[in-house]
Design goal:
With 228 residues, this protein is α/β, with parallel strands linked by helices. The longest helix has 20 residues.
Length: 228
């Protein structure tokens, strides 16, 4: 039995925060963003020993398949799946694991290419519930701007469960990602994430705390190369 199963259940359009999620144009645009950033960074991870499930509303399946058909086929460990089947698919992926790392990632953001490898290699005490990464970047994909950011409890973390408890629905008491830091946690060193600002993620804006946090335009490509 392997010790750790790493899984990401990434909401593509599985959360109904707007009726846009049923719109073909919205789906096509978000698929473009996902493939350009999130899926690309996952495909290039230095360790492929993880499962990433992009979850979609069952009733949008035909539009999802049509959108996916425009892109290169994803590897077996990265899949688009109906939200109604996510639990059974996760159970199959985790069947040989005693511990589950449930990794939080949105469908338009990125991890560093070596994030999964370093996550698996981290020395974790038995009572730790979460591995939180506080440092990363924010990228304005519209105006090609990049800045360093540090957040107390951003939406980039791994929650640690016994697999049998995870599969039976155990959840830590968290209302939002801001509560991850309140769990028994350890911090992942390094700048491990990129928040991508684009046309349809209304909740994120390109805000820079200090002018010194801005990355020179000539160095942006070099920084992003660690992610995609």
């Amino acid at each position: 039995m392997k010790d750790i199963g790493v899984i990401m259940e990434i909401p593509f359009n599985s959360r109904e925060y707007s009726k846009q999620i049923y719109d073909r144009n919205w789906i096509n645009y978000r698929m473009e963003i996902t493939m350009k950033y999130t899926a690309k960074c996952l495909k290039q991870q230095t360790s492929s020993d993880f499962t990433a499930l992009f979850l979609y509303k069952d009733e949008t399946e035909q539009m999802i398949k049509e959108a996916l058909s425009r892109y290169e086929k994803l590897p077996p460990n990265i899949r688009f799946v109906p939200a109604s089947q996510s639990r059974s698919i996760a159970a199959e992926a985790l069947k040989d694991a005693s511990l589950t790392y449930s990794v939080r990632l949105d469908s338009d953001n990125m991890f560093a290419k070596d994030y999964m490898e370093r996550l698996r290699g981290a020395t974790v005490k038995p009572d730790i519930q979460a591995i939180v990464t506080q440092q990363g970047y924010i990228y304005d994909s519209i105006h090609h701007r990049l800045a360093r950011v540090t957040y107390p409890s951003p939406s980039f973390f791994a929650l640690i469960y016994k697999t049998e408890e995870f599969l039976t629905g155990k959840k830590y008491p968290m209302r939002t990602h801001h509560d991850a830091i309140k769990l028994k946690h350890m911090l992942m060193p390094g700048r491990n994430f990129v928040v991508v600002v684009h046309k349809t993620n209304a909740l994120n804006e390109f805000r820079v705390g200090r002018k010194s946090d801005l990355i020179e335009s000539s160095k942006i490509a070099e920084v992003l190369d660690a992610f995609i």
